[in-house]
Amino acid sequence: MEADNLLAKYFGGTATEQELLQLENWIATSPENEVEFMRITKLYELAGTPENARLEINTETAKQQFNDYRAKSNKKKHLQFRSDSNKRSWLVGAAAVVLLLLATTLFWQKQDINPIVLSAQLEPLKTQLADATTVHLSAGSTIAYDNNFSKRNKEITLKGEASFDVGNLGTGKLRVAADETFVEDIGTVFEVSAFERNDYVQVKVTEGLVKFYTATDKGIVVKAHETGIYDKRTKKFRIAARYTLENENKLVQLNLDGVTLQQAVRIIENAYNINVKLANDNFADKQITVSFTNEKAETVLYIMSQTLGLKLEREGDNFLLKK
Q1: Together in a domain, 232 and 98
Q2: What CATH number is given to the structural domain containing 123?
Q3: Does 175 lie in the same domain as 300?
Q4: Is the distance from CB of 188 to CB of 221 less than 8 angstroms?
Q5: 316 lies in the same domain as 171
C-alpha cells in the first residue's frame, strides 16, 4: 500500500517534499486516515527499549520535517488566497479543519484505540497475542501494537529481537516493522533481529516463508531453513545462510559477504543450532568475507578464527573465539 511506504519514509526522516505532500493529502482524505496516522505515530514513540538501554527513535526528525513542510505549504496557500478572491474564505477552511479534528476525536474515542507496549528488560519474555501468535521477546527488546490487534490488522513494531510462532485467528496477515524494514508473514515461524546498534536486520525462518522488504525495495522472500539479511549501510537484501536435511544430515550453505564477525557468529549459531561467544567485543566489528558449503560448524569457525588471527575453544556445542 502506498500509504505504508509514505509512512515508513516519514518516520525514517527521509521523505521528500513531494512525498510529504502525498502524505498530507492522504491524512486529509478521511478521519480514519488521520486516526491511523496518530496510531502509528504513537506506536513508534512508545516502542523504545527498556530504560536501562533506551534507544533513540527518529520520530522527532520526521515530525519536524513534516511540520516545516506544512507550515511552508500553509504559507503558500495563504498567499494564493489573498491573490484570488474567488477562493473560499479562510473562515470556511478553518471551520472545515475544526470539523475534521472533531470527527477524528470522536472516531478515536469510538474505536478505543490504545497502544500496548511489552518490554523485556534483563530477562526474555514470552507472551501470546490475540490472534494466538506466540512471541518470544529477547532481553533488551520491545514490541508495540494497538489494543485492536487482530480485529483490524496485525501490525507490530519491534525494537530489538523476537521470534514469532504465528497464530491464525483474527483479521489480516502479521506484519512486523523492524527498523527500516518490514517482515510479512505467510503462515510461518520466524525470528527477527533488529537492534538499532547493529548495521543490519536479520530474519531467520524456521517454518513457512516471509516477505522481507522496505518502503523502497520489494526485497526478498525468505523460506524455511534460510536466514535473510538486510544491510542498512548498502540498503541491500540477500540470503546469507540456508540448510537442507538429507538422510538426517544437515547440509549447510553459508554466504558471508562483508559481514561483521558478530553478525557472522549469529548466522552460524542459527544455521547449526550451536552457541558461539566472543571473549571480547573489541573484535566484534571485524569484517569477514567467506563462503562454505556442507562444512561442519567447527571447521567453519576454525577457518574464520585463523583468518582473523583468533583462537577457537570448544566445549560440547559451545564455542569461544578469543585473542
Answers
A1: no
A2: 2.60.120.1440
A3: yes
A4: no
A5: yes
The 8-class DSSP code of residue 88 comes to P
Of 8, 6, 3, 42, the closest CA to residue 176 belongs to: 8
- What is the structure's pLDDT at 222? 93
* Dist. CA 37–CA 313, nearest whole Å: 52
Q: Which three cell numbers stand for residue 41?
A: 505515530
For residues 117 and 104, give the distance between their C-alpha atoms in angstroms, rounded to a whole number: 23
CA distances from 57 to 62, 137, 180 (A): 10, 19, 11
Position 49 confidence tier, pLDDT thresholds 50, 70, 90: very low
Whether residue 143 contacts residue 118, with contact meaning beta carbons closer than 8 Å, is answered with yes
Each residue's pLDDT tens digit, 62-80: 555 556 655 655 554 443 4
Q: What are φ and ψ of residue 57, in 5° steps?
A: -105, 140
Residues 145 and 41 in one domain: no
In the predicted structure, residue 95 carries a pLDDT above the cut 50:
no
Mean pLDDT is highest, among 29-43, 103-117, 300-314, for 300-314
74 shares a domain with 50: yes
Number of H helices, E strands in the chain: 7, 18
Residue 26 belongs to domain spanning: 2-111
Provide CB contacts within 8 A for 23, sequence distance 6+: 3, 6, 7, 10, 15, 66
- Residue 280 carries which DSSP code? -
| pTM: predicted TM-score of the whole model, two decimal places | 0.62
